[in-house]
Amino acid sequence: MTLARTVEVSRRYGDTLALDTVSLDIEQGGVVGLLGPNGAGKSTLINLLVGLRRPTSGRVELFGGDPRDPASRRRIGVTPQETGLPPTLRVRECLEFVGRHFPDAVPDAETLDRFGLTDVAGRQTGGLSGGQKRRLAVALAFVGRPRLVFLDEPTTGLDVQARRALWDAIRDFADRGGTVVLTSHYLEEIEALADRVVVIGRGRVLADDTVPAIRAMVGIHRVSLTAPELPELPGVVGVEAYDGRTSLLTPDADQLVRDLVRAGVPFHGLQVQPTTLEEAFLTLTGKTPTGR
């Protein structure tokens, strides 16, 4: 079942074309990861799907209707990139306020526990840390028992433990039949959560498939080894060095290994792996892989 859809949608901001004839279906169930560099159009796409913006051309549907129709929007949850919380309201009061907009809201205690907010339930939001505010903003998206949740950079500012806890909450929601559309700058987050990945660049959909399929799409392999010095080798599209090891990115790993042997390179600890999602993303969006 299709929950949300764009059909040949374009969106302009003055002379800037943010989205260029994008067609995309969001089916029921699972996690859809939206990837793209800054300015690629990810947030614009979400804003169109949730009814905060109108397309310049094309059509947008949410549950078969207009995204600006309150009846359609009542079945979604949204956490935008930036959320303004009333600083004098307490955490529990924020949950209560949002919950009163829905006929069958999740009990406050359940939401507080799921998102690790029980200990700060009585605190004013103005006194929360940045990470606590972000957890509350994400929690509010789930209060109304939505069928479809849009999370725009939900884990920005969270420490590793809080990020992992949020991953568990997202997985649990998807396992129970919910649907999540997720943008993130953390590619390992998309790799860990997404059943489907949509790569957006220059306002267009560059790829739309599973994580393994997108890795395979760019045909890049990582050949990792330890060697005192490496000559210039044909077919190498990227080089990374970390902790005494060198990784060579190449579309033909077998040929690269043969070239290493022919060149008499004294290497050891050879490993050949498929490309990571990050390397596939950088290749698809026309950027150059770099070490971290």
The first-level CATH class of the largest domain is given as: Alpha Beta
What's the story with the biggest beta sheet?
6 strands, mixed
- The structural class is alpha/beta
Number of helices: 10
Estimate nothing, just give the exact number of structural domains: 2
Stretches with pLDDT under 50, minimum 5 residues = 288-292
Q: Do you know the CATH topology of the largest domain?
A: Rossmann fold
Helix proportion = 25-40%
Radius of gyration: 22 Å
Order of helices and strands: EEEHEHEHHHEHEHEEHEEEHEH
The best one-word shape is: globular
End-to-end CA span: 40 Å
- The strand order across the widest sheet is 5-6-7-3-8-9
Give the CATH architecture of the largest domain.
3-Layer(aba) Sandwich
How much of the sequence is in beta strands? 25-35%
Question: How would the blueprint of this fold be written?
Answer:
Layout: E1 2-13, E2 16-27, E3 30-35, H1 42-49, E4 57-62, H2 70-73, E5 76-79, H3 91-99, H4 108-114, H5 130-140, E6 148-152, H6 160-175, E7 179-183, H7 187-193, E8 196-201, E9 204-209, H8 211-218, E10 221-226, E11 238-242, E12 245-250, H9 253-262, E13 268-274, H10 277-284
Helix pairs in contact: 8-10
Can you describe what's shown?
With 292 residues, the chain is an alpha/beta fold. The chain folds into two domains: 214 residues, P-loop containing nucleotide triphosphate hydrolases (Rossmann fold); 54 residues, no CATH class. It contains ten helices and 13 strands. The strands form three sheets. A six-stranded mixed sheet has the order 5-6-7-3-8-9, with helices on both faces. Strand 6, helix 6 and strand 7 form a beta-alpha-beta unit. Helix 8 packs across helix 10. The longest helix is centred in the middle third of the chain and has 16 residues. The chain is globular, with a radius of gyration of 22 Å. The C terminus is likely disordered.
